[in-house]
Amino acid sequence: MIRFASLGSGSAGNALLVESGATCLMVDCGFGQRETLRRLARLGRSPDDLAGILVTHEHGDHLGGVIPFARRHALPVWLSHGTFSAAKAVTNDVDLRIIDSHASFAVGALEIRPYPVPHDAREPLQFVFSDGKIRLGLLTDAGEITRHMRDLLSGIEGLVLECNHDADMLAASNYPASLRQRIAGRFGHLENGAAAGLLREIDASRLQQLVAAHLSEQNNRPSLAVKALSTALGCSDQDIGVAGQEAGFDWRQLA
Ligand SMILES: [Zn+2]
Ligand SMILES: [Zn+2]
Could you tell me the pTM of the whole model? Predict the structure, then answer.
């Protein structure tokens, strides 16, 4: 069984908990220390419950709070070599463990399969978690869908999927043209339609939990993201979760 919950999701900060048995991992931490503790407590967890922190990439909304939190609570941190070097995280008082972007590894009861994604960072990763039977995929901060992603996420039981923006809202926004191009570009962020396209292209027959994540507060609306995903799956809007910037989302379970 896998359980997962979010402390918050979006460009102002991200952190996800993934749990199997007694193993609880935090993925990214884009919040300050006090805020992280507050959000963990809301989900019934404390730093003592964590086996460590897994990092997707060096952008501040993901890495910002990781090093001070890991140092303070003596937690190991797993990250790619590119993320490590981009973060200049050379510090002898935090247990940093560099991972191979293509090799699975285990932490307690969780098996973690990293995979590279196109995003404007040094060596950005996303992950598929497994307890040996059930799989949970995480896919945010990716400019486009690749065949490798489709292969990995096909037949998955749970998915936290970026729905960063609505293409029309972004095009009509008052963002500078360069920023609009960065977000919509091949190394930017997934828009609602691209996320929905992934669901159409993979085997989604075993999907028990789907959560839209990393929504832009300016260039998206939860209702638009939900509608895009529910239309792609042919399911009810109520079946789709949304990870909020403030609220994240409460524990969900895959069995
Ligand atoms: Zn991000
Ligand atoms: Zn990013």
Answer: 0.97
Q: Which ligand is nearest to the CA of 57?
A: 2
CA of residue 131 to ligand 2 center, whole Å: 27
Ligand 2 centroid–CA 232 distance in Å is 25
CB 255 within 8 A of CB 1: yes
Q: Which residues lie near ion ligand 1 (Cβ < 5 Å)? A: 61, 141
Q: Please, are residues 13 and 34 in contact by the beta-carbon 8 Å criterion?
A: no
Q: What is the pLDDT of residue 89?
A: 66
Instruction: Using the mean position of ligand 2's atoms as its centre, give its distance from the Cα of residue 225 in Å.
Output: 19
| 49 Cα–ligand 1 center, Å | 25
Read off the pLDDT of residues 100-155 as tens digits, 9 standing for 90 and up.
999 999 999 999 999 999 999 999 999 999 999 999 999 999 999 999 999 999 99
Do the beta carbons of residue 131 and residue 109 sit within 8 Å?
Answer: yes
pLDDT digit string (tens) for 76-98?
Answer: 999 999 999 988 766 778 999 99
Return the ligand number nearest the Cα of 140.
1
Note whether 7 and 243 are within 8 A (CB): no
pLDDT digits (tens, 9 = 90+) for 200-212: 999 999 999 999 9
Query: Whose atoms come closest to the Cα of 13: which ligand?
Result: 1
Distance between Cα 56 and ligand 2 center (Å):
8
- Rounded-to-integer distance, Cα 232 and Cα 199, Å: 6
Cα(69) to centroid of ligand 1, in Å? 19
The answer to whether 164 and 118 are in contact (CB under 8 A) is: no
Length of the chain: 255
Please name the residue ranges forming H helices in the chain: 33-42, 60-63, 66-73, 81-87, 147-153, 167-171, 177-184, 192-201, 222-233
